[in-house]
Design brief:
Number of helices: 14
Structural class: mainly alpha
Helix content: over 70%
Largest sheet: none
Shape: globular
Length: about 300
């Protein structure tokens, strides 16, 4: 009995210890959602614009269905799915832009308005604060973007169905022509590899945000542009610029396999056949980038702890 009581007490202590460590992190993330409402407002605004545009386009939906009937089955699916893929892309790009500007201001704003003095007075470590801020572009924003994109596509389907019903056309025609499951799989895959590939960029921006007293955007971008200019003038080469270009387009280069040569618009391609997860996760640039991201985020925590809050 004593052994069982000791085991129960140890479990209770472990549970209490876990809660002690996770509760500050949880409330730190909640603080970010409260302070930076653009995390969900900006993707919602993008979704609203997409829905407005699709509502105007939906008026031509009966004519589009009639024209698509002349295409091959795969080409028909691609033509009908194009607005849904564009909607997802617009929301994802909006989320990426929000992530970049969030990282730039996440640690810099609190020093600029001196609210860091208040936050440092709370029993929350610098590591917990920095990790909670990194949690937003790595987890929260991607989840928000995916949820909003899926809901937006469902609303688009309902709008299209309403237009078809108003024109006495069976809406099942629309639902069967749009490969919504394939679009969702590609969308989730793209968001995941985007987060992993841009991890060093997010980490770099967080580090600069923690270090710079002001003009974080210039400190984050000018050193790289300066290196590219100096290299071009001194060595007449462009390795730095090529690296920056590769880092910005790497998800498309390493995460997808596109057919060679010009694409025939009348010949549709199965979107799932373009995914190349094995190649992406075996790319050295991915793992080196994740290592760099870990270093940058650790440096952000160090700067927040050591630098003068003023």
């Amino acid at each position: 009995m004593s052994s069982a009581a000791e085991s129960a007490k140890m479990d209770e202590n472990n549970t209490g210890l876990l809660a002690t460590h996770t509760r500050p992190f949880y409330w730190s993330v909640r603080r970010e959602l409260w302070e930076y409402r653009s995390i969900w407002i900006a993707p919602l605004a993008a979704a609203g614009l997409v829905l407005f545009g699709f509502a105007l386009r939906a008026l031509k939906l009966p004519h589009m269905l009639h024209s698509a009937a002349k295409l091959s089955p795969m080409a028909k699916h691609a033509a009908m799915a194009a607005p849904f893929a564009f909607a997802a892309g617009a929301i994802i790009v909006t989320g990426l832009i929000v992530s970049i500007f969030y990282c730039l201001g996440a640690l810099n704003n609190e020093r600029r308005d001196r609210s860091i003095l208040f936050w440092k007075s709370l029993p929350v470590s610098d590591s917990t604060t920095v990790l909670s801020k990194a949690f937003v572009p790595f987890v929260v924003l991607p989840a928000v973007v995916l949820v909003i994109a899926v809901v937006t596509q469902l609303v688009m389907l309902l709008l299209g169905s309403a237009v078809l019903l108003a024109n006495r056309i069976d809406p099942a025609t629309l639902w069967t022509q749009i490969p919504l499951l394939q679009i969702s799989v590609v969308m989730v895959y793209f968001v995941v590899i985007n987060v992993l590939w841009y991890a060093p960029i997010f980490g770099w921006l967080l580090m600069v945000s923690s270090w710079a007293r002001r003009m974080a955007f210039l400190w984050a971008t000018l050193p790289w542009l300066g290196l590219a200019v100096v290299e071009k003038i001194a060595l007449d080469s462009h390795y730095v610029w090529s690296f920056l270009t590769y880092r910005s387009k790497g998800t498309l280069i390493e995460g997808f396999t596109f057919p060679p040569g010009p694409h025939n618009p009348t010949q549709a391609i199965d979107p799932l056949s373009l995914l190349a997860p094995a190649h992406f996760f075996s790319t050295p640039g991915l793992w080196l980038g994740l290592l760099a991201a870990a270093i940058f985020i650790s440096a952000a925590g160090w700067f927040r702890r050591m630098r003068d809050p003023g």
